[in-house]
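[worker-b] picked up task from shared queue
[worker-b] task type: protein-ligand structure
[worker-b] ligand name resolved to NAP; SMILES cross-checked against name lookup, match
[worker-b] sequence length check passed
[worker-b] input payload:
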Amino acid sequence: MTTNTQVLLASRPQGWVKESDFKIVETAIQQPRGGEFLIRNKWLSLDPYMRGRMSDAKSYSAPVQIGDVMTGGAVGEVIESQHPRFKKGDHVVGILGWQEYAISTGEGLSKVDPNLVPLSCYLGVVGMPGATAWIGLLEHCQPKAGETVVVSAASGAVGSVVGQLAKMQGCRTVGIAGGKAKCDYVVKELGFDACVDYKGGNLLTDLKAACADGVDCYFENVGGEVMDAVFRCFNPFARVALCGLIADYNLDEPHGVRMIRSLLVNRVNLRGFIVLDRPDLYAKALSQLGRWVAQGKIKYHETVAEGLRNAPSAFIGMLKGQNLGKQLVKLA
Ligand SMILES: NC(=O)c1ccc[n+]([C@@H]2O[C@H](COP(=O)([O-])OP(=O)(O)OC[C@H]3O[C@@H](n4cnc5c(N)ncnc54)[C@H](OP(=O)(O)O)[C@@H]3O)[C@@H](O)[C@H]2O)c1
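[worker-b] inference finished, payload out:
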């Protein structure tokens, strides 16, 4: 092995991402120097936030520069090391980029145990999306038994964990997802009480029927018309964890918030949050989730693209809702 396949950002997308916004190159694999190690990436995570990194609009994190390797979480195996703490054969997770091999000093990387759960889980249910679900629901929404919790993008990486955690809290748990197959999965496999198909043509009516006692907690992953509908169903003193707005990510003009009066009259507590702001809770969240996944108490599904060259199309597919559960790319 001498070459490293990498995916670079070729241009900043205007509207929807196109495959031509990426460029695939072959470069020489670097050799680790003192204090460094070489990782063979095995799984690459594709996440909605990457759409934001492709843009140079102001955000909570710096954009990827044109010509740079696309940013992204990956899990891999150390294959050569000149580092005292990371040994050949160790498995690590962190921001290793859209590439087959990565050099690291260890900064920002964590070792993971391939014997506890499959390696790919460290990018999903026992990784950043799982921690996002845990922190957003348990820390920001603080649902109580008997309350109704609604989560959008319910079949996805974050939403699927939110709903299962809400069930564990004793809540009535209602998902919102696109299409019957996803809704069936959410109810029959994940154990939600109900799931509303927002593409079914009767979003508000169906949502009100599924939430007969109103909405106490809303875990917001999408925004747009889904958000408008949920905002019409709040109970007094409802809590909203504002996690993501994927319906807006490819729009030039955002949909905006249309039902803001509902926040006022219901005295709603809406909290925007970024998982990276809570390193204090991250380890606790992942240790609980790892245990629950290993015990079969939390279920997950993965949609897997084969090979790095298929990462751009898989990424675009995920933004369009073609994934069920966590979208991954298998690299080795
Ligand atoms: N705040 C944080 O720290 C943080 C961390 C991780 C993720 N997030 C956010 O959380 C959200 C979910 O992320 P994820 O990784 O779990 O992704 P995901 O749900 O696995 O995949 C994205 C899903 O979004 C749904 N979607 C796309 N366009 C939509 C639209 N116009 N209206 C409604 N739904 C739409 C699609 O499902 P359907 O087929 O059901 O439409 C798609 O499968 C994203 O907004 C992401 O940016 C935030």
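[worker-b] attaching auto-annotations
[worker-b] The pocket of NAP is lined by residues 47-49, 129, 132, 153, 155-159, 177-178, 182, 221-222, 224, 226, 243-247, 273-275, 318, 321, 323, 327 (CB under 6 Å).
[worker-b] releasing lock
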